[in-house]
């Protein structure tokens, strides 16, 4: 059953709060003119004043009442939507976003201190330091945090480990419930010591926030640290920290974020993209792994956009990956894709040249693509050589690349024609492979916009057509009754190419084929018509005194004469 999308755009806070009370109880009743049937899947997209991102919930229609249209009494219809466990969890997570806005927090009663939420941390954490909380803000005091964050790793003893875990839960709860207070602390930090404590706090709670998929909280903290690092000296002066303090926070958490990225919804991925865009090496690693493992085209495009903006940082990563001899093939392919966007120097292009001979076909194919994109010297010759590659996909990529330079050089066209003219191998397996390659070459020739040695190309195509369609080489000998499938595919490709590059000489041969019983009869007629109408269009667009081109013989169809007469 198809999913019905309902968009709710609230103009006032009060209107939203009335319905949100229902949502928090797991359902929502909506007045409608045409209620959906029971069990209809519904995707509810809620837009709220002053809040980003939008709340998206999935549920089903659990009650549906049609409007009453009585002459004396009219009553509106309605339907009630029930939400599943995932959507209820999304609503709980959305509470954390609303806590950051005073008017929502007060109306919904969300302004509880960090330790007084419904999910209280274990009692052990409340005895860690008597003065755990700082004033009216509900945030943990800096003294408490400084003490609790002293152990860098989980302690070995059971008692200490329990204390460590309880303190971590306390930190997570406090930050989620009082996010604005912590953002203010980061932005108004006064000493290097405070900066280090807040970075350690962020690093400590990051695994828990990632597991909870609380990307809004992670994003708010990331933006705050990023801004503070650019506007104050305290983060930069912190001893032992990298130039970008976020690298310290996200160290060893990259795999967790990549795993979450694969299952995140569209809204969450936007937030993760924002986070990764503010990181340096860690951000590059997150996005490159997402690019290598994710099959969603939109996700790959977003990841590529972020990586391209990294400039020199991503270029260093590209070169390191391409130069590593034991590097995984898919990382080399990802690096090549990025090189096509940021590569400029000849030494960078040389990396792609070397990988044209890589063991993995997908790496070879991408290397060809990069060489054409960067207009590398000698790229055409490498692409011609790739038309003999053992892998069909590489040969197809080579053909695709071959049609992109404009115009293709005469030497490359001559190589193409020479390869098309090569005799078949007597071995059956090699013959089939040979014909597949010939088809690619013929299609590449047909896709070429400007062919200098036009007559030679047409003659080779005509020779191929005669050879495959007639019992003997003579043009007027008896047509073959049947040919094998590989030859038939070659003949079809040659006919289509003649339709694009042929003159009246090709037209007469194609007209003869059109009268045969070969499967290519209809395509042959279409190709002949294409030649005919191409010349008609050319003559129609020519000046009145231009005369008839030398390629148009006296045997041209009557339609050409009529067009000329109409112009005189």
Walk me through the structure:
With 568 residues, this protein is an alpha+beta fold. It folds into 4 domains: 4-93, Thrombin, subunit H, CATH 2.40.10; 96-103 and 105-331; 332-405, Leucine-rich Repeat Variant, CATH 1.25.10; 428-567, no CATH class. It is built from 26 helices and 9 strands. The chain has helices at 13-23, 85-98, 102-108, 142-148, 158-177, 179-187, 192-211, 215-231, 245-250, 254-263, 266-277, 281-293, 297-308, 312-323, 329-342, 346-354, 361-373, 379-386, 392-402, 410-421, 428-446, 454-469, 485-501, 504-514, 521-540, 558-567, and strands at 4-9, 27-32, 41-47, 55-65, 68-69, 74-75, 77-83, 133-134, 139-140. A 5-stranded mixed beta sheet has the order 1-3-4-7-2. A hairpin with a 4-residue loop joins β8 and β9 (139-140). The longest helix is centred in the first third of the chain and has 20 residues, at 158-177. The two termini are 64 Å apart. The relative contact order is 0.04. The model is unreliable at 111-131, 471-479 and 548-568 (pLDDT under 50).
């Amino acid at each position: 059953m198809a999913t019905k999308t309902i968009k709710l755009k609230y103009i006032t806070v009060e209107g939203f709060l009335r319905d949100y009370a229902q949502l928090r109880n797991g359902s929502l009743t909506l007045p409608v003119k045409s209620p959906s049937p029971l069990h209809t899947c519904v995707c509810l997209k809620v837009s709220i004043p002053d809040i980003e991102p939008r709340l998206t919930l999935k549920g089903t229609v659990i009650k549906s009442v049609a409007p009453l249209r009585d002459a004396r009494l009219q009553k509106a219809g309605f339907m009630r939507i029930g939400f599943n466990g995932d959507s209820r969890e999304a609503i709980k997570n959305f509470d954390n976003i609303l806590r950051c806005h005073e008017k929502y927090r007060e109306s919904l009663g969300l302004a509880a201190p960090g330790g007084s939420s419904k999910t209280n941390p274990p009692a052990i954490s409340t005895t860690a330091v008597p003065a755990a909380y700082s004033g009216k803000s509900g945030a943990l005091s800096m003294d408490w945090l400084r003490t609790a964050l002293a152990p860098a790793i989980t302690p070995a003893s059971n008692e200490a480990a329990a204390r460590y875990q309880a303190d971590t839960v306390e930190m997570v709860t406090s930050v989620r419930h009082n996010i604005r207070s912590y953002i203010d602390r980061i932005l108004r930090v006064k000493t290097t010591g405070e900066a280090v404590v807040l970075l350690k706090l962020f690093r400590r709670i990051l695994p828990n926030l990632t597991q909870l998929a609380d990307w809004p909280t992670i994003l708010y903290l990331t933006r705050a640290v990023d801004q503070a690092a650019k506007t104050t000296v305290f983060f930069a002066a912190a001893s032992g920290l990298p130039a970008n303090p976020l690298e310290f926070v996200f160290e060893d958490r990259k795999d967790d974020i990549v795993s979450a990225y694969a299952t995140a919804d569209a809204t969450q991925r936007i937030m993760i993209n924002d986070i990764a865009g503010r990181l340096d090496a860690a951000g590059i690693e997150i996005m490159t792994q997402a690019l290598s493992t994710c099959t969603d085209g939109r996700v790959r495009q977003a990841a590529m956009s972020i990586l391209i903006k990294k400039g020199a940082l991503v270029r260093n990563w590209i070169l390191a990956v391409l130069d590593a001899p034991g590097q995984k093939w898919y990382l080399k392919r990802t690096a090549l894709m990025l090189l096509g966007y940021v590569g400029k120097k000849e030494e960078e292009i040389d990396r792609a040249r070397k990988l044209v001979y890589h063991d993995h076909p997908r790496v070879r194919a991408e290397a060809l693509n990069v060489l054409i994109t960067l207009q590398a010297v000698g790229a055409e010759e490498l692409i011609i050589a790739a038309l003999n590659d053992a892998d069909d996909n590489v040969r197809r990529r080579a053909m695709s690349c071959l049609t992109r330079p404009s115009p293709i050089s005469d030497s490359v066209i001559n190589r193409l024609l020479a390869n098309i003219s090569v005799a078949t191998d007597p071995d059956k397996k090699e013959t089939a492979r040979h014909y597949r390659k010939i088809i690619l070459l013929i299609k590449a020739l047909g896709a070429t916009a400007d062919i200098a040695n036009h007559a030679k190309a047409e003659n080779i195509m005509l020779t191929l057509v005669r050879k495959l369609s007639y019992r003997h080489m003579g043009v007027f000998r008896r047509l073959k009754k049947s040919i094998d499938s590989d030859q038939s595919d070659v003949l079809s490709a040659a006919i289509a190419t003649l339709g694009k590059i042929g003159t009246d000489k090709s037209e007469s041969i194609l007209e003869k084929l059109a009268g045969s019983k070969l499967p290519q009869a209809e395509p042959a007629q279409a190709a002949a018509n294409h030649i005919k109408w191409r010349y008609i269009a050319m003559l129609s667009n020519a000046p009145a005194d231009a005369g008839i081109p030398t390629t148009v013989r006296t045997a041209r169809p009557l339609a050409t004469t009529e067009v000329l007469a109409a112009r005189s």
